[in-house]
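W.,

You were right to be curious about this one. When I first looked at the sequence I had no strong expectations either way, so I just let the prediction run and decided to look at it fresh. Below is the sequence, 457 residues in total, followed by the output.
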Amino acid sequence: MMKKRLLGLTLACSMTAVALAGCGGSGGGTETTEPATSESTAANAGESTTSAAPVEAADGDTVLKWAVWDVSSTVYYQPLIEAFEAANPGVKIEMVDLGSADYQTVLATELTGSGSDFDIATIKDVPGYTTLVNKGVLEALDDYIAKDSVDLSQYGGITDQVTVDGKLYELPFRSDFWVMFYNKDVFDNAGVDYPTNDMTFEAYDALARSVTNTTPGEEVYGAHYHTWRSAVQLFGILDGKNSIVDGNYEFLKPYYEMILAQQEDGVCQDYATLKTSSLHYSGAFAQGNVAMMNMGSWFIPTLIEKIKTGEYGEEVANWGLVKYPHAEGVEPGSTLATITCLSIPTSAPHKDLAWEFVKFVCGPEGAQVVAETGTIPAITTDAVVAAISGMEGFPDDEASAEALKTANTYLEMPVHEKSSEIETVLNEGHDNIMTEGSTIDEGIEEMNEGVAAVLGQ
């Protein structure tokens, strides 16, 4: 019980900043959640490069310099350092905070300049990773991985998706993945069973419709979709057969058909209205009349904290989680993720020791340390799930804890040199379809043609 209280207090320190900063994509566009900065995305905007704190190294100690951001508001940095240093006497870790606003740009400048002495670099996003790999400033980790027999399967397939030309230049240590939040009271009031951890899209659609109430002034929405394209389009890649960067988007049609039909029937709120009002997904769920909402795990600490402080009322206090719905034949627990990773610069002065740090932080031991701060790591062992589901304010039903166990995990935006341009085309196509400015077929054709033009450049 004491551990649960302490964990809740630790979590609360970070959650206030989460609530202020928010996560996810902006303006109906990218689903970038910047998981490692969700505690305080804007807090250090414009911050200059400074060490978080001078490291006092005894004679014979080796100091490893770690490029990070948001030191003051990120709860897992120091526990990771303390655990690693305790297990590796004679090695000290010095964090260097590059600020969050332009972190990847500053990091690229540092690593491509002369005299860079970072031993470990935190990688914030996939486009930033691609840039650094293309610049040749990251060390390939394959030989280290083979030497120490690191089991890459523990990352749920994510490492395959960040392999570039057969080489892996980063390992993930934090992951935010999509789940289905639901309001138990809505289902109780309707006399309908709760959603489960194994729902096909057909079952999910039927369940959403079964609790919907379109009576004016008494509206209950069976589902809610935020205005990011990811809230709709990424349903289509859960089978592992399709990619958001391939240039052919016919596979999106059944998901647009389902959600536009829900919109027409009042099962979910109108996209154009949500876009015009700029209603945040957290505000929509907080109203207490949304039965189910697909959203990233970053919303868990925010929801817990806002209920605890009373900002959210009793309308949403009785909530739960289940795994993402899936197509027929797709393994339950297949989901979408954003990751935060560690790399070793090619200019690192102490590469072998840097690898020991990367291996520790990105491995099971580091995952447990991260989880005990209330943060979801890239590896979700039973111990990790127990730590997170044991937090004060987390739903106490078994299904919610089970929802934290993922199966196949796919990156929201895979590694691609033209990911930004592709993103722009897909956002425009999504907006046109959801506002019914174009038909589904017309919108998909716009995406096909637009991305083909980007890929042909």
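Here's what jumped out at me. Residues 1-50 have pLDDT under 50 and may be disordered. And, maybe more interesting for your project: The first helix runs from residue 2 to 21.

Coffee later to discuss?

I.
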